[in-house]
Structures are given as structure tokens and as C-alpha cells.
């Protein structure tokens, strides 16, 4: 059940598509706290408006806040770490 009209749902989906970090730019943007936070807020908004999923909405918003407060930080990809380890 949704409380929103189709135009609003479409706008939220378009916004989410614009804000999510594209696979081709992931390594460049994954550590950008503003982009990560915006992506998470957008995902939370989608959960709230499209599916009325309060639990998921709160989780996404809380993760977004952690990025803005720099509690969450970018970690190197595990597959990249092996290059720096001595054998």
C-alpha cells in the first residue's frame, strides 16, 4: 500500500537513479561521504514512499548520518589488499 501518487513515485525513482553511485564510478566515489550519504538518503526515501517500509528507511537514514559524521569511512577492497601484503 502506498500513500503517494504515481508521479511522486516516479520522481523518487528518478532521483534515486541519479544519486546512486554507478558501477563504473564506484572506486572513485565510494569514499565520498556526500555521495554515499545522498545515495543512502535516496534509498531510504524510496523505501518510505514506494513500500512504506519504516524499518529499512530508518536503517538507510542512520547509515547516511554515519557517513556524514565520518563514523563510516571507505575501506580498501579486499581484493586490492593482497597487493600490499608480504608473502
Q: Any overview of this molecule?
A:
- This protein is mainly α and 87 residues long.
- The protein has one domain.
- 64% of the residues lie in helices and 0% in strands.
- The protein is globular, with a radius of gyration of 16 Å.
- The chain starts with 5 loop residues before the first helix and ends in a 6-residue tail after the last helix.
The number of E-state strands comes to 0
Give the uncertain stretches in residue-range form: none
Number of helices: 5
Gyration radius, to the nearest Å? Answer: 16 Å
What structural class do helix, strand and pairing data support? mainly alpha
* Shape type: globular
- Mean pLDDT, nearest integer? 88
In the residues, how many domains can be counted? 1
The share of residues in helices is 55-70%
Largest sheet: none
Order of helices and strands: HHHHH
Q: Approximately what portion of the residues adopt beta-strand conformation?
A: under 5%
Amino acid at each position: 500500500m502506498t500513500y503517494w501518487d504515481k508521479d511522486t513515485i516516479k520522481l523518487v525513482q528518478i532521483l534515486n537513479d541519479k544519486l546512486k553511485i554507478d558501477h563504473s564510478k564506484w572506486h572513485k566515489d565510494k569514499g565520498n561521504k556526500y555521495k554515499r550519504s545522498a545515495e543512502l538518503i535516496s534509498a531510504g526515501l524510496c523505501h518510505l514512499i514506494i513500500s512504506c517500509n519504516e524499518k529499512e528507511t530508518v536503517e538507510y537514514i542512520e547509515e547516511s548520518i554515519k557517513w556524514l559524521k565520518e563514523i563510516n569511512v571507505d575501506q580498501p577492497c579486499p581484493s586490492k589488499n593482497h597487493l600490499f601484503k608480504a608473502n
